[in-house]
Automatic annotation (TrEMBL), chain A:
Domain ABC transmembrane type-1: 116-323
Key words, A-Z: Cell membrane, Membrane, Transmembrane, Transmembrane helix, Transport
Name of protein: ABC transporter permease
Transmembrane segments: 47-67, 115-138, 144-163, 203-222, 259-280, 306-327
Localization (cell): Cell membrane
Pfam families: BPD_transp_1 (PF00528)
Organism encoding this protein: Ancylobacter moscoviensis
InterPro entries: MetI-like, MetI-like_sf
rRNA-binding recorded as keyword: no
Main location: membrane
Automatic annotation (TrEMBL), chain B:
UniProt keyword list: ATP-binding, Nucleotide-binding, Transport
Family in the record: Belongs to the ABC transporter superfamily.
Domain (ABC transporter) ranges: 5-235
Record protein name field: ABC transporter ATP-binding protein
GO molecular function: ATP binding
Automatic annotation (TrEMBL), chain C:
Localization per Swiss-Prot or TrEMBL: Cell membrane
Species this protein is from: Ancylobacter moscoviensis
Domain of life: Bacteria
Keyword Membrane appears in the UniProt entry: yes
Membrane-spanning parts: 12-34, 70-90, 102-125, 145-164, 185-207, 241-263
Name by which UniProt lists this protein: ABC transporter permease
A Pfam family it matches: BPD_transp_1
InterPro entries linked: Bact_Polyamine_Transport, MetI-like, MetI-like_sf
Topology in membrane: Multi-pass membrane protein
Keywords from the named record: Cell membrane, Membrane, Transmembrane, Transmembrane helix, Transport
Keyword Transit peptide: no
Main location: membrane
PROSITE patterns: ABC_TM1 (PS50928)
CDD domains (UniProt xref): TM_PBP2
């Protein structure tokens, strides 16, 4: 374990040295001109920049992620045995995800695999659904709403933005519960004699998830479409292009970065959502994040939890990469 | 007394690109000195080198006799007025003007006193408390000048500060700048692509082209006695006729051109047989009834009446276009479009220069 | 939209349904905060009461959590804004060939699920504090601040970077030219220029921290914030006191937004008025007539 401490302290140092070597090289070869880093910022500010960014990049972002990945490949051991002869790299935690406990009779760990696949599938579906819901409004706001109307729309949109995720989920529970207003209406209209169990059927969960991240879709879309020259749409319309043609070949290609950004955010937030499943999930609800949570604080198997978290992380990275590839974009274009 | 600024063999290159080539120049104390040239000629680079933002690749910059190598912009006795003025938007007018004193650690009461005086000097006494964004264009100019003067520089550098103003204000500011310079008596180095600005304000002008200082002299010299074809055509309007020298006498020379045989002054001493360019100012061209034997024949294409002066565009036999300017007070009858005329000029109004690249 | 009446009706219906979907649940929750039944109920209204608000304020855990959330939020602001500022400045100075790698690293937390950030923070700091004998740092507040700082710093950086890219380098050069040192340029010119972005970043950082649940629930260890207490309460069962909390949050947001809007409009109008006065004065100066008295 002392080896890992050397790594933790050595990695930032090594990277810092590499940076100064690169800077010196660029200065020697003449690709860099102007004052050097410390001359440019002064010693005090220069040190602040290096320490702040170094601490952030390494101790808050990179090293924790690496520690999690490292732990996911280690066995669960009592503290006394950590660093001992049994503390070796293993795929046990990933094997468990696929095949379950060694004492189990099933061939596959269906419970976890199903939850995982369902989470991914539903997240994709919700991403697509939210795009469909938000696109017309985003287009209207960006291209044809008057200034006064736009202000009102933006205010109405921003308002629920700051309401906590848990509260948003809670609102849906109030809305959809068996004595809730929806069931009251359905029964009042005579459409059903018994209250519908929206929550038990996971409809509440899916609606709540879609609802919770609606705005993560609409703002990137709005920003992207807003930068499109209104004359382009007008011109296409004058030339007699049908409406679907205008959207498919003019607006959407232009709004690509916004679409990608909205989709990435909604997918990531949905797949990683913890509050909505806890609040809206029924007893039989399958969702991946509560399982991860339980690895830590119910099963107390941290390495296994780390492995599950890493699986989720890899899934999200793959999704981001696929979206970038599909839209032919770079990361910088979608994180604005 | 040492020269205000000396450039000794200054070369500035960015990678492959040569921005300034072998600049040698001495600017005297108290002089209003302008660098005049088209955009991209290297004048701004030279100014930034004097102020210390760029180190010359080769050569030396001396200010008041002292070599400036390794001395940063914040340590030089120069002050720069930026093209966009670069006033600090988060400070008031008074804070802007006092900034140089503040960073020099001048005590507050002394600073306030000085700022007050400067505000009065630039006629902004009532505006010290305002934010910069609340000022008009001309007021902003004056704040920039006061801010630069506050640090009592020995050289004030101005990077086209008037270019963003409208015409009326620009002309007003020219007079004002010149008056300020006379009053404070320090060296002004002024960068511009506007020859009118350079000619009206400067004691001397350096005309630059493609990184090279082509000519240094007072306004009259660069206008009336240009030394290179570039200066001849960049400073003021000029008509240009190509030809070959056939005879050279005392001061004058004769050359053979597609328009016929013409004569002009020969200050650079071109010899018989050399390719030359003959420059004649539009106001030196005289127009005569067709039939007289002076000069060459031309057809009137366009007559543009501008009040005090009328510009006549002519087309010579060869198809070359020329401009003649006729002052309103000369009483000469204006031609009409389509009219054929004989165009002439006095030989001493023609100027012969070597054709570039044909030595 | 120049469209036929049918399309217009369709679009209006869509807008109405959209905002019904968006605001309906909040409205339902809001009404239930004032209705008397024990279980959050909208209809029928059996009586109007403020009891649920009283109950909320009497809830010791909630109030402890609220104080903790505010404290953590302030710490996150104190850490994330300086880090975001440094991150943005480094972004403009870092060598071109490593810029994209740097960008990838510092923006990655924005695209990482919150629970993963929480987990990795706990895992790393448990090991690190154990090995370096700094166990006192293995604390719910410290870990939560660090975990939240990872992505909130990135938000701050993106906000500050957007303004930094509009910074006029001539400002910096003008200050240098007047004799300022580099640290003075940073303090006198760059920081004041970035002030609006720093303020926005601070507000966003606080709100993001305040409402965060996914990262916090892992990193808070045995402590409690408002969101973790809230999650616990919601899981136990529904009570209108939770609706009351939502009402308070929404009301605070609206008031804040309105105050900001009023302030901004007033400032804009005043600036425009003074600018017009200056122009009129100059016009008069140039044309030689005395300037009219300006208020």
């Amino acid at each position: 374990m002392s080896g890992s401490l050397a790594f933790v302290l050595g990695l930032p140092l090594a990277v810092a040295l590499a940076f100064f070597a690169l800077a010196a090289h660029e200065r020697r070869t003449g690709t860099a001109t102007g004052p050097g880093f410390f001359q440019r910022n002064g010693l005090g500010v220069g040190l602040y920049l290096i320490i702040a960014v170094g601490f952030w990049a390494f101790f808050i972002i990179l090293l924790p992620q690496l520690a999690m990945v490292d732990m996911s490949f280690r066995p669960k051991l009592p503290p006394a045995q950590m660093g001992g002869p049994k503390d070796v790299y293993t795929l046990e935690n990933y094997r468990y995800f696929l095949f379950g406990s060694t004492t189990s009779t099933d061939a596959w760990n269906w419970l976890h695999i199903k939850a995982f696949l369902l989470t991914i599938g539903v997240s994709i579906a919700i991403t697509v659904l939210n795009f469909a819901i938000c696109y017309p409004l985003a287009f209207h706001m960006a291209q044809s709403a008057t200034a006064a109307r736009l202000r009102i729309l933006l205010l109405l949109l921003i308002l629920p933005y700051w309401v906590n995720e848990i509260l948003r989920a809670f609102a849906f529970r109030v809305l959809l519960s068996s004595g809730g207003i929806i069931n009251q209406m359905l029964m009042g209209l005579g459409l059903t004699s018994e209250p519908v169990d929206f929550l038990g059927a996971d409809i509440g969960l899916y609606m709540g998830l879609s609802y919770a991240y609606l705005l993560m879709m609409i703002f990137p879309l709005y920003n992207a479409i807003e930068s499109l020259d209104k004359n382009q749409v007008e011109a296409a319309r004058d030339l007699g292009a049908p409406w679907w043609h205008i959207h498919a070949f003019i607006v959407m290609p232009h709004a690509k970065p916004g679409i990608a950004s909205g989709c990435t955010l909604v997918f990531m937030l949905t797949a990683g959502a913890l509050a909505a499943p806890l609040v809206l999930g029924g007893p039989r609800t399958l969702w991946f994040t509560p399982i991860v949570y339980d690895r830590f604080y119910q099963a107390f198997n941290w390495p296994q939890g780390a492995a599950y978290a890493f699986i989720l992380l890899v899934t999200c990275i793959v999704f981001v990469l696929l979206v970038l590839k599909a839209f032919r974009l770079s990361l910088g274009e979608i994180t604005r | 007394m040492a020269a205000a600024v000396e450039l000794e063999g200054v070369n500035i290159t960015f990678g492959e690109f040569v921005a300034v080539k072998d600049a040698n120049l001495t600017i005297e104390p108290g002089e209003f000195f302008s660098f005049l040239g088209p955009s991209g000629c290297g004048k701004t680079t030279l100014l930034r080198t004097i102020s210390g933002f760029i180190e010359p690749t080769r050569g030396r910059v001396k200010i008041a006799g002292q070599d400036m190598k390794g001395i940063g912009p914040n340590k030089r006795p120069t002050a720069l007025i930026f093209q966009n003025l670069a006033l600090f938007p988060m400070m008031t007018v008074a804070e802007n003007i006092g900034y140089g004193l503040r960073v020099r650690g001048v005590a507050r009461h002394e600073r306030d006193e000085k700022v007050k005086n400067l505000l009065i000097q630039v006629a902004l006494a009532e505006h010290g408390h305002k934010k910069v964004s609340e000022l008009s264009g001309g007021q902003k100019q004056r704040v920039a000048i006061a801010r630069a003067l506050a640090v009592e520089p020995s050289v004030l550098l101005l990077d086209e500060p008037l270019s963003a103003l409208d015409l009326k204000l620009r002309q007003h500011m020219r007079t004002e700048l010149r008056a300020i310079q006379k009053r404070v008596g320090i060296t002004f180095i002024y960068i511009t692509h506007d020859q009118g600005e350079a000619l009206t304000m400067s004691d001397r002008i350096a005309v630059m082209n493609a990184g090279v200082i082509e000519q240094v002299g007072d306004g009259r010299a660069v206008y009336a006695e240009p030394r290179t074809p570039f200066v001849a055509s960049f400073v003021g309007e000029n008509n240009r006729i190509r030809g070959r020298i056939t005879a050279a006498e005392e001061g004058l020379a004769t050359l053979d051109t597609p328009l016929g045989t013409l004569r002009g002054r020969n200050p650079v001493g071109l010899a018989v047989g050399e390719e030359a360019l003959l420059f004649v100012r539009p106001e030196a061209l005289t127009l005569h009834d067709n039939g007289s034997t002076i000069g060459f024949e031309g057809e009137t294409l366009d007559v543009a009446y501008e009040g005090s002066v009328t510009h006549v565009t002519l087309r010579a036999r060869t198809g070359q276009k020329m401009t003649a300017s006729i002052g309103a007070s000369t009483g000469v009858a204006l031609p009409v479009a389509g009219e054929r005329l004989n165009v002439g000029f006095r030989p001493e109004d023609g100027l012969l220069l070597a054709h570039p690249g044909r030595h | 939209m120049k469209a036929d009446p049918f399309q217009r009706v369709l679009f209006t219906v869509y807008i109405v349904v959209f905002f019904l979907y968006l605001l309906g649940p909040l409205a339902v929750m809001g009404v239930s905060a004032f209705n008397t039944p024990q279980y959050p109920q909208v209809w029928p209204i059996e009586g109007v009461t403020l009891d649920w608000f009283a109950m909320l304020f009497a809830d010791q855990d909630m109030m402890t959590g609220l104080r903790m959330s505010i404290w953590i939020g302030l710490l996150v602001v104190a850490i994330s804004v300086p880090i975001g500022l440094a991150g943005a400045i480094v972004m403009t100075q870092i060598q071109a060939r490593v810029r994209s790698a740097y960008y990838l690293v510092v923006v990655s937390p924005v695209l990482t699920p919150g629970i993963i950030i929480g987990i990795s923070t706990v895992v790393f700091w448990r090991q690190f504090t154990g090995q370096t004998g700094t166990r006192f740092l293995y604390d719910g507040v410290v870990l939560t601040v660090l975990g939240q700082a990872s992505f909130i710093s990135a938000y701050c950086m993106l906000i500050i970077l957007a303004r930094l890219q509009r910074f006029d380098r001539a400002q910096e050069e003008a200050a240098l030219d007047l004799g300022a040192t580099y640290p003075q340029v940073f303090r006198h010119i760059l920081l004041p220029f970035l002030k609006p972005a720093l303020a926005s970043a601070a507000v966003l950082a606080f709100l993001s921290s305040f409402e965060n649940y996914n990262t916090t629930t892992f990193s808070i260890l045995s402590d409690k914030t408002l969101t973790t207490v809230l999650a616990g309460r919601v899981r136990q069962g529904s009570t209108p006191a939770i609706s009351a909390l939502a009402v308070i949050i929404v009301a605070a947001t609206i008031l804040g937004a309105i105050a900001y809007e009023v302030y901004k409009r007033r400032a804009d109008a005043a600036a425009a008025r003074r600018q017009r006065a200056a122009l009129a004065e100059e016009e008069a100066e140039l044309s030689g007539t005395p300037a009219p008295a300006m208020g």
